[in-house]
C-alpha cells in the first residue's frame, strides 16, 4: 500500500506543482521564458536588495548610464516591490519610455530575467535564476565587510549556498578594495575556480557621495515629512539589526529611540539627530511612530545621504568604509557586540578602527562632546583605512567600470585591478556522496586531501548538510576546496518533470530520448557557467547525482564503482533490495561516462564481466583508494578550537535587589573582553531589562538596560530575573508549511514560558500544510499554534512556518473564497502525499504533564509497554515493577499514556490504567546493576560509603583518594543520585559518581558511551571492523571463532561497527555460548586506537570493491586473515601482507585463525606512505587530460 501511495505521489506532483504551489508556478513560467526568449540587445535589468529599493551601486550605474545614453539606445528595467514610499522615488522616472518597472516575481520580471543583456544586482538572485551564455551578470555586492563572511562564519557551510552560487554565475564581481576582493576569493572560496573577473576599482555607490545634490535630497526628505533644521549639522546613526524576531525588533526600536532622545537632549541645539535602520528593521521602524520624524526612509540612497552628513555613528555596518571619502568624523557605538561576537567574528579589532569606540550611551555622549580630541587620536587609523579601503574612489569609479565592461576600455594604471579568478589548473568536479559517516565518505575525504593542489583545482558538489555529522565531514576538506550545494527545485516544466520521472524510474532506454537539455540546464542553475576538465561521481550509487555529473560542462566524466555493483544491486537489507532502482537506472547511463572507475583491478574485471552490456570494455578501469596514514597511526595532532563562552540571549525583565543607597558596580562590556572597563551604573529605579547572560568561572553576569538605554554588565547576585510572559496575541488567518528541522521540538505552549513542556520532535512534520490563527509574542520570541486540519498539535516558533504568499490573508485580514478552496485542495493533497505522517500524528501527544521522578506502583501485575503510544503497537512485557521512573503523562488520539523508564536511558509507553502510582515517603534504591570500567577520583579526599544502607542514610567516611579505581556496580537512588561500587584495595566501597571521571587507562568508550575494556594481552585477540551487514558475512566469523575457541579454549573476538545484522549476530553468539568471548564494540570515533591493541584482524566479506579496512590494518602493522575473494587477494598481494583462507567457509576461516595465532606465517611490512603515493599517481593518470591515452592503460 505504501509503495502504491508513493507511486501516486510521483505521478501527480509534476502536474500539480505549477497549479497549487506558488514557487512551482514561478519555476514553470521562468523555465518556459528561459527556453523561448532571446536576448534583447542594450537592455539592463537592475535589482537592489531584492527589489525593496532603488539604491546602492545598481542605482549609481543606472544613473550614469541614463545620463550618458543621450541617444536613448538602452532600455532600463528595475525589479521592485511596490510600496508608497518607493513610489515617491520612482515617480521622477515614470514618464521615461525607456525605463520599465516590473514587480518582482511577476511574469514580466521573469521574462526580463531571461532576455535582458545585462543583469546588475547588489545581493543575490533567487535559486531558480540561470544566467545565459549571452548575458552579462554584474554583482556589485553591498559593502566592505567588517564582520566575517562566507565560510569564515562558524556553523553550517550550506548557509552560504545561494551567495556562492550567484558569485560563480556572475561575469564580473565589483570590489572596492583588496579586502573585499579577498572576501570573494577566500571567504567564499572562489580563488582558483571562478571563471569570471573580479574588478577592483572602488564602489560605484560611493560616487553618489561625491556628487550628492544637497537641495534635491533635502527636498525629498521634506517630502517625507522628516524633521530637519537647515541651520544645524546632521548626525546620522546607522545601527545594524541582529534580531531574530519581530519582538526583538520592537525592543531594538525602543532602545534606538531612547538613546537618540538622550543624545538629542544634549546635542540637539547643534545637530539634527537622524537614524537609518537596517532594511530588515525598516518596516517595523516605520510603524513605530515616535521614531518616524527622525527616520531616514528606506528608499533614500544611503551614499547620497552620506554626502550631507557631518557626523556618522555606527556599529558594524559597512557604511563607515564608504564615509571615509568625506574626511568627516566617525564614532563607533558597539553596545551589543558582546551579544554576538562569539557567534560571528570580525576582521578588525576595535583599536584598529578609524574612530573611537563606545560601549555605553554615556561613553558615546562623551565622545560627541570631545569630538575633536577623540577623533584626532584616531586620525592615523583613519588615514590608514582610507588607503586600504577607498584607494580608488575619486567620484569616477562608475565611469571606469562601465567603460571597461561595456566597451573594453582599460583605465589608467592604478585605477583598476583586474583579477582573473581562474587558476589555469586542471579543474575537478567531485560529488563525494552524502558525507555521512561511512567508507565512501572516508575514501572521498582521503582522496581530496591527497590531491596536489598545486596542479589541480577541486570543487565539491554537495547535497544539503543538515546534520552535524555531515558538517563535520565537510569541515575535513581542505580549505582550498570550492563548495557548491544542491538546493531548491529543478527548473523543469511539467513535461520535463515527467521525462525526469521516467528516467528515474526506468533508467535510460534505447527507444527513449534522453533529455540532456534539462539536466544541463539544472547544472547551469547549480554550478553557474563553470567548465571542468574532469567531473567525478565518487559515490557511484545515485542515479540523481550521476545525471548531474554527466550534464556538467566537463571534458571527461568518471563514475566510481566501489564494489561488485551487480551484487550490490541485488543485495537484500531487511527484506528490500535497497539499491535496485538507483543502480538499475545508473547502469543504463554507464555508457555515457568516459571511465567507470573501480577501486581495484580485480573489482574492475568483475564489473567489466557482469556489466558488459552497459558499456564498452575499455571504459572499465581502476584506481586504488588513497588512505590517511597519519590519522590511522594517530600522528595527527587534535585540532583544538579556541573555546569562547557564548553570550546567551536572554530578553527578560529583572529587578535589582541591592539597596538603592549602595552604588551598583558593573562593566561597560562583557567582563572577559580586553576592552571592558569597570563602571558605576546609575539607576532611576530597580526595574531593568535583561538582554543577555554570560558565565565566567564561577560567576554569572547579566547585560542590562533601563528605559531603553543600555547600562552594562552586572553580577548575578544583584538581580532577580523575572519569568518570561506573553506580551501580545495577534489574531491572523495565515496558511503555510512547517519548516521544522532535525532539532525542532513541538511544545504545548509558547516555548519560553516556564510552564511550557515539549511534546516531542517535530522533524517528521516538515512540509505539512498548517493554518495559523494567531501569533503569540513573548519577551523572547513569537510563536504559533500548529493546526493540521482542525486539530491543534502544539506550538512552534513563527520562524518554523513558511507562509504561503499565494493562499494567505490580504492586508485587511480577509481570506477570499478562492484561497479557502486552494487551502482545502492543498490540505487534501497533503493527506495523499504524507499518509504515514498523518498516521504518526494520531500518536502525537497534544498534552503532557511532567512527573520526572520515581514512584511506587501499587498494582502487582505484569506491565505491558510499547515503543509508540498506540494500542495496536507490539507489546513488550517488563514484568511487575514496584518502583518506576515516570517521565510524564501524555494524551493523544488513543488516550492517556505514561512514558516510563524500562532500563536506564530507555523509555517506553504504558497505558495509564496499567499503573497505580503513589509518592515515595523515603529515598530508596531504584537500580543496582553490574558494570565494569575505571575512574579517576577528582578530589584528594573523597566520601566513602561502606554499604547501600550507608548511602540511604548518608553515612560516609572522608578518606584519602586512590589515583585510579575499578568500578564493578552502579546504583541509582530515587533522589536521582548515582553511586558506583569500586575495588578499594582489598574491599568494595561506594563513591558518589560526581566525585569521579572516566579513565581511559584500561579501556575506551564507544559512541554510545559504553565502556569497552582493552583486549587481554594474555590471550589472542581477533578483531574485525565494518558495517554489520550481510555482505560482510560476520556471522561466518562468529561461527569460525566458535570452532577456534572450542579447540583452543582461549581468545576473544571484537566486532567494531553497527548495522542491520547485529541481532542475527547476537543470536549466533548466544547459540555458541560466547557472550563473554565475543564483544560488540559498536561505533568508535577513533577505532584505530582500539584495533592496534588487538593481535589479528579478520575479514570475512563475500565481496568487496577495495577493502579499506585491510589497508588500515596493514598500516597498523597487524597480522591479517581474509577470505580469498578477488579484492582482498589483490590488496594482500596473494598473501604477502596477510593470510588468505584456503576455503571461504567457517572451517577455512577457523584454520587460518589457528595458523596465524600459532605464528605459522610471516608477513612483510606494509609501507602506507609508498602505497598512498602510488595510489594518487594512478588516479592522476586518468584525470590528467593532457596524458597520452596509452599511458592510462599500462
UniProtKB/TrEMBL annotation:
PANTHER family, alphabetized: TEICHOIC ACID GLYCEROL-PHOSPHATE PRIMASE (PTHR37316), TEICHOIC ACID GLYCEROL-PHOSPHATE TRANSFERASE (PTHR37316:SF3)
Membrane topology classification: Peripheral membrane protein
UniProt lineage: Bacteria, Bacillati, Bacillota, Bacilli, Lactobacillales
Organism: Vagococcus vulneris
Gene Ontology CC annotations of this record: plasma membrane
The protein's name in its UniProt record: Glycosyl transferase family 1 domain-containing protein
Keyword Membrane set for record: yes
Domain GW: 685-717, 730-800, 965-995
Record's keyword annotation contains Cytoplasm: no
Top-level taxon of the source organism: Bacteria
Amino acid at each position: 500500500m505504501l509503495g502504491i501511495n508513493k507511486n501516486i505521489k510521483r505521478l501527480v506532483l509534476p502536474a500539480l506543482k505549477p497549479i497549487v504551489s506558488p514557487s512551482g508556478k514561478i519555476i514553470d513560467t521562468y523555465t518556459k521564458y528561459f527556453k523561448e526568449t532571446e536576448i534583447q540587445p542594450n537592455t539592463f535589468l537592475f535589482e537592489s536588495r531584492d527589489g525593496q529599493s532603488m539604491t546602492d551601486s545598481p542605482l549609481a550605474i543606472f544613473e550614469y548610464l541614463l545620463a550618458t545614453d543621450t541617444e536613448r539606445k538602452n532600455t532600463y528595467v528595475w525589479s521592485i516591490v511596490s510600496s508608497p514610499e518607493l513610489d515617491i522615488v520612482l515617480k521622477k522616472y515614470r514618464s521615461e519610455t525607456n525605463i520599465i518597472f516590473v514587480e518582482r516575481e511577476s511574469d514580466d520580471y521573469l521574462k526580463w530575467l531571461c532576455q535582458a543583456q545585462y543583469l546588475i544586482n547588489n545581493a543575490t538572485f533567487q535559486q531558480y535564476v540561470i544566467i545565459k551564455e549571452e548575458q552579462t551578470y554584474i554583482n556589485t555586492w553591498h559593502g566592505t565587510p567588517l564582520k566575517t563572511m562566507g565560510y569564515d562564519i562558524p556553523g553550517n557551510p550550506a548557509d552560504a549556498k545561494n551567495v556562492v552560487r550567484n558569485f560563480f554565475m556572475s561575469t564580473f564581481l565589483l570590489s572596492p578594495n583588496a579586502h573585499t576582493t579577498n572576501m570573494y576569493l577566500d571567504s567564499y572560496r572562489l580563488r582558483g575556480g571562478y571563471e569570471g573577473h573580479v574588478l577592483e576599482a572602488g564602489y560605484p555607490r560611493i560616487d553618489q557621495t561625491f556628487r550628492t545634490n544637497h537641495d534635491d535630497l533635502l527636498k525629498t526628505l521634506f517630502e517625507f515629512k522628516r524633521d530637519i533644521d537647515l541651520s544645524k549639522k546632521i548626525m546620522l546613526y546607522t545601527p545594524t539589526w541582529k534580531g531574530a524576531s519581530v519582538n526583538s525588533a520592537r525592543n531594538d526600536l525602543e532602545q534606538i529611540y531612547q538613546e537618540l532622545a538622550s543624545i538629542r537632549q544634549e546635542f540637539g541645539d547643534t545637530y539634527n539627530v537622524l537614524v537609518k535602520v537596517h532594511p530588515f528593521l525598516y518596516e517595523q521602524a516605520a510603524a513605530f511612530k515616535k521614531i518616524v520624524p527622525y527616520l531616514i526612509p528606506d528608499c533614500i540612497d544611503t551614499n547620497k545621504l552620506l554626502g550631507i552628513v557631518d557626523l556618522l555613528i555606527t556599529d558594524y555596518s559597512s557604511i563607515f568604509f564608504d564615509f571615509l571619502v568625506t574626511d568627516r568624523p566617525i564614532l563607533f557605538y558597539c553596545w551589543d557586540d558582546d551579544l554576538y561576537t562569539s557567534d560571528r567574528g570580525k576582521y578588525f579589532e576595535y583599536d584598529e578602527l578609524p574612530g573611537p569606540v563606545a560601549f555605553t550611551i554615556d561613553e558615546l555622549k562623551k565622545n560627541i562632546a570631545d569630538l575633536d580630541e577623540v577623533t584626532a587620536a584616531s586620525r592615523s587609523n583613519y588615514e590608514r583605512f582610507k588607503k586600504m579601503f577607498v584607494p580608488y574612489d575619486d567620484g569616477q569609479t562608475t565611469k571606469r567600470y562601465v567603460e571597461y565592461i561595456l566597451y573594453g576600455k582599460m583605465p589608467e594604471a592604478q585605477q583598476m585591478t583586474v583579477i582573473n579568478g581562474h587558476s589555469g589548473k586542471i579543474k575537478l568536479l567531485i560529488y563525494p556522496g552524502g558525507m555521512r559517516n561511512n567508507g565512501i565518505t572516508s575514501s572521498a575525504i582521503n582522496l581530496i586531501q591527497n590531491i596536489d593542489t598545486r596542479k589541480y583545482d577541486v570543487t565539491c558538489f554537495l547535497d544539503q548538510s543538515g546534520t552535524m555529522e555531515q558538517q563535520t565531514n565537510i569541515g575535513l576538506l581542505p580549505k582550498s576546496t570550492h563548495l557548491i550545494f544542491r538546493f531548491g527545485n529543478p527548473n523543469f516544466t511539467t513535461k520535463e518533470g515527467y521525462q525526469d520521472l521516467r528516467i528515474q524510474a526506468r533508467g535510460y532506454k534505447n527507444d527513449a530520448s534522453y533529455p540532456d537539455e534539462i539536466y544541463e540546464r539544472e547544472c547551469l542553475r547549480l554550478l553557474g557557467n563553470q567548465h571542468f576538465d574532469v567531473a567525478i561521481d565518487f559515490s557511484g550509487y545515485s542515479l540523481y547525482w550521476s545525471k548531474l555529473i554527466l550534464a556538467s560542462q566537463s571534458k571527461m566524466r568518471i563514475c566510481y564503482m566501489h564494489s561488485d555493483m551487480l551484487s550490490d544491486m541485488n543485495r537484500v537489507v531487511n527484506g528490500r533490495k535497497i539499491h535496485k532502482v538507483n543502480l538499475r537506472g545508473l547502469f543504463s547511463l554507464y555508457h555515457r561516462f568516459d571511465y567507470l572507475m573501480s577501486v581495484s583491478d580485480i573489482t574492475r574485471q568483475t564489473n567489466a564481466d557482469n556489466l558488459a552490456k552497459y558499456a564498452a570494455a575499455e571504459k572499465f578501469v581502476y584506481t586504488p583508494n588513497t588512505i590517511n596514514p597519519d590519522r590511522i597511526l594517530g600522528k595527527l595532532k587534535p585540532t583544538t578550537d579556541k573555546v569562547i563562552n557564548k553570550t546567551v540571549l536572554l530578553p527578560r525583565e529583572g529587578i535589582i535587589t541591592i539597596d538603592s543607597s549602595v552604588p551598583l558596580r558593573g562593566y561597560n562590556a562583557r567582563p572577559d573582553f580586553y576592552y571592558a572597563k569597570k563602571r558605576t551604573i546609575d539607576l532611576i529605579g530597580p526595574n531593568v531589562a535583561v538582554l543577555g547572560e554570560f558565565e565566567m568561572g564561577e560567576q554569572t553576569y547579566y547585560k542590562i538596560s533601563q528605559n531603553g538605554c543600555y547600562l552594562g554588565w552586572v553580577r548575578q547576585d544583584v538581580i532577580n530575573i523575572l519569568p518570561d510572559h506573553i506580551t501580545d496575541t495577534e489574531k491572523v488567518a495565515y496558511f503555510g508549511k512547517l519548516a521544522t528541522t532535525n532539532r525542532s521540538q513541538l511544545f504545548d505552549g509558547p516555548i519560553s514560558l516556564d510552564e511550557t513542556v515539549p511534546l516531542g520532535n517535530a522533524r517528521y512534520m516538515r512540509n505539512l500544510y498548517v493554518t495559523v490563527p494567531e501569533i503569540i509574542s513573548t519577551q523572547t520570541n513569537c510563536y504559533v499554534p500548529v493546526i493540521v486540519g482542525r486539530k491543534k498539535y502544539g506550538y512552534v516558533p513563527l520562524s518554523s512556518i513558511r507562509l504561503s504568499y499565494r493562499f494567505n490573508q490580504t492586508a485587511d485580514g480577509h481570506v477570499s473564497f478562492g484561497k479557502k478552496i486552494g487551502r482545502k485542495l492543498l490540505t487534501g493533497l497533503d493527506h495523499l502525499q504524507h499518509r504515514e505522517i498523518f498516521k504518526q500524528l494520531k500518536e502525537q501527544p497534544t498534552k503532557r504533564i511532567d512527573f520526572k521522578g520515581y514512584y511506587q506502583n501499587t498494582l502487582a501485575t505484569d506491565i505491558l509497554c510499547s515503543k509508540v503510544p498506540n494500542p495496536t503497537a507490539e507489546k513488550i512485557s517488563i514484568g511487575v515493577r514496584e518502583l518506576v521512573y515516570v517521565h510524564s503523562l501524555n494524551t493523544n488520539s488513543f488516550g492517556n499514556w505514561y512514558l516510563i523508564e524500562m532500563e536506564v536511558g530507555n523509555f517506553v509507553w504504558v497505558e495509564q490504567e496499567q499503573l497505580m502510582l503513589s509518592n515515595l515517603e523515603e529515598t530508596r534504591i531504584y537500580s543496582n546493576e553490574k558494570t565494569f570500567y575505571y575512574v579517576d577520583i577528582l578530589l584528594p579526599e573523597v566520601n566513602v560509603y561502606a554499604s547501600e544502607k550507608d548511602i540511604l542514610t548518608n553515612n560516609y567516611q572522608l578518606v584519602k583518594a586512590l589515583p585510579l579505581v575499578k568500578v564493578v556496580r552502579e546504583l541509582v537512588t530515587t533522589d536521582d543520585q548515582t553511586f558506583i561500587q569500586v575495588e578499594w584495595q582489598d574491599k568494595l566501597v561506594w563513591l558518589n559518581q560526581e566525585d569521579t571521571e572516566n579513565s581511559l587507562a584500561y579501556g575506551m568508550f564507544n559512541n554510545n558511551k559504553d565502556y569497552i575494556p582493552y583486549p587481554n594481552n594474555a590471550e589472542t585477540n581477533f578483531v574485525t571492523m565494518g558495517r554489520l551487514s550481510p555482505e560482510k558475512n560476520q556471522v561466518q566469523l562468529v561461527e569460525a571463532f566458535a570452532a577456534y575457541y572450542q579447540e583452543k579454549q582461549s581468545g576473544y573476538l571484537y566486532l567494531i561497527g553497527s548495522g542491520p545484522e547485529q541481532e542475527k549476530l547476537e543470536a549466533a553468539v548466544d547459540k555458541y555460548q560466547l557472550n563473554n568471548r565475543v564483544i560488540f564494540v559498536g561505533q568508535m570515533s577513533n577505532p584505530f586506537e582500539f584495533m592496534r591493541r588487538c593481535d589479528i584482524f579478520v575479514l570475512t566479506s563475500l565481496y568487496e570493491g577495495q577493502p579499506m579496512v585491510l589497508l588500515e590494518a596493514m598500516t597498523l602493522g597487524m597480522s591479517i586473515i581474509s577470505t580469498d575473494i578477488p579484492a582482498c587477494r589483490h590488496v594482500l598481494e596473494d598473501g604477502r601482507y596477510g593470510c588468505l583462507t584456503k576455503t571461504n567457509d567457517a572451517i577455512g576461516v577457523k584454520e587460518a585463525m589457528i595458523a596465524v595465532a600459532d605464528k605459522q606465517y610471516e608477513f612483510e611490512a606494509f609501507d602506507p606512505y609508498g602505497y598512498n603515493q602510488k595510489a594518487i599517481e594512478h588516479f592522476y593518470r586518468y584525470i590528467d587530460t593532457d596524458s597520452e591515452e596509452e599511458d592510462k592503460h599500462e
